[in-house]
Known about the structure:
Elements: E1 4-11, H1 19-31, E2 39-41, H2 64-75, E3 79-88, E4 91-99, E5 110-114, H3 124-127, E6 137-139, E7 142-148, H4 155-158, E8 166-171, H5 178-192, E9 195-200, E10 202-204, E11 210-212, E12 216-218, E13 234-241, H6 242-252
Parallel strand pairs: 1-2, 2-3, 7-8, 8-9
Antiparallel strand pairs: 1-13, 3-4, 4-5, 6-7, 9-12, 10-11
Amino acid sequence: MQKKLKIALVQTDLVWESPEQNKINLSEKIDAISEEVNLIILPEMFSTGFTMNPYNFAETMDGQFILWLKSIAKTKNTAITGSLIIKENDNYYNRLVFVFPPDGQRDGEIQTYDKKHTFTFAGEDKVFTAGNKKLIVDYNGWKICPLICYDLRFPVWARNVENYDLLIYVANWPKPRIKAWNTLLKARAIENMCYCVGVNRVGVDSRGNTYTGNSAVYDSLGKKISTMKPSIETTEIITLTKGDLLKTREKFRFLDDRDNFVITP
Length: 265
């Protein structure tokens, strides 16, 4: 029996530094997902937009948005992921959280990844603490590697030494560099022989940055298998098939020829 993973990509506008309004908007979009899915994917900093003002909007791992995500995982019986601002030990993190659905063993469990490559061009490195550890999520028979936005430019960090099946990028990637987004998502799928998913926001933030989304799913040979249109708020549901991925890997075995080296933080 082939293992399938049905994912929902939520390409949405984000209201600048307005957690309550973003919660309302996102709740409506999530409620509108009528099919049963295994995983809902939200953009980077889904509660605020890509703000460099964490002091007023950070929460703890017991905060309102964490509780909100856990409630969605329970009521929709699905995992959900995205990044938000978390304060921990007097440090601020652009933290991706992966919330598991109730399944008898991992009810409400949360696994986290702190963005390693802080975006120096916007000063993210000055206010956020960078992470130094990859996360590989074991879920529904799939190994998932979730990363955040600027991480996309650094292939060594995403290098598939763990034999993961699905690579995810959540992002606030602006229009002027969207060609890089499109190109690098496809490249990461090909070089890591995995499904690669990118979920990006749309709209305009308070600093005048325009975002066109261009959220997408690529298979392990770089074929685009999603149909999301840019610059509109939309949700697309895609079913990934692990059997197809394994057949491609078995046929070509490119991962067997990986260079051997150690990544240091």
